[in-house]
Amino acid sequence: MTERKNGEMRALQPRELYRSQQYATAIYRSELHFAWGPGYEIEQSVHGAPEIRGYSQEYLEASSPRRQQIKDHLTEGD
């Protein structure tokens, strides 16, 4: 929801947000690439997301608290 100048509340137009999603993602990734300080090398992941070069996938998975939460949740269902 968003509020108009006259105080009226309106729903956002999801179609326009969806259309601009790829463009916004490209800008975000470009800006993120330049935001890293010196000493970091950035490379694209398989999915196009920026990754810091030099960290193995095993390290990233082991140091991700969210990933561990997901794994714990999945094993609860067994």
Radius of gyration: 19 Å
Measured by DSSP, the beta-strand proportion falls in 5-15%
Percent helix range:
40-55%
Q: What is the number of beta strands?
A: 4
Number of helices: 3
Summed up:
The protein has 3 helices and 4 strands, in the order ββαββαα. It is of the alpha+beta class and 78 residues long.
Task: Describe this protein's structure.
- 51% of the residues lie in helices and 13% in strands.
- It starts with a strand and ends with a helix.
- The protein contains three helices and four strands; from the N terminus they run ββαββαα.
- With 78 residues, it is of the alpha+beta class.
List keywords for this structure.
alpha+beta, 51% helix, two-stranded antiparallel ribbon, 78 residues, 3 helices, two-stranded antiparallel sheet
